[in-house]
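Hi V.,

Quick status before I head out on leave. The structure for the redesign project is tokenized and pasted below; the design run finished overnight.
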């Protein structure tokens, strides 16, 4: 069975100082497991840990990891990568965003 596809978006995270505000996160590779020979399904899930992301980010950059767990024990780990490219914002865009955040009371 496929637990995670490299096409499935597992998270959307904020990108600091980027032209785009967020980036989509996917598994670097598909994660497949074999079920037991008697046909019972294994109790498998996953948990991800994404680092703070700062622009520039290229498509495929490793931004964290995904741990595959069975009965709360790590059985496999795979890289979490960015699905998109995010270029670094120029100083004007950063200034305007900060100004808007102050007006909105977010800072």
């Amino acid at each position: 069975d496929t637990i995670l596809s490299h096409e499935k978006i597992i998270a959307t995270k904020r990108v600091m100082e980027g032209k785009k505000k967020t980036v989509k996160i996917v598994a670097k590779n598909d994660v497949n497991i074999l079920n037991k020979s008697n046909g019972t399904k294994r109790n498998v899930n996953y948990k991800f840990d994404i680092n703070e992301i700062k622009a520039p980010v290229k498509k495929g950059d490793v931004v964290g990891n995904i741990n595959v767990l069975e009965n709360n024990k790590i059985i496999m780990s795979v890289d979490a990568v960015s699905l998109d490219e995010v270029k670094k914002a120029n100083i004007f865009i950063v200034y305007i965003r900060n100004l808007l955040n102050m007006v909105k009371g977010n800072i």
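Above is the designed sequence. Strands lie at 2-4, 9-16, 22-27, 31-32, 44-50, 53-54, 62-70, 73-82.

G. will cover questions while I'm gone.

Best,
W.
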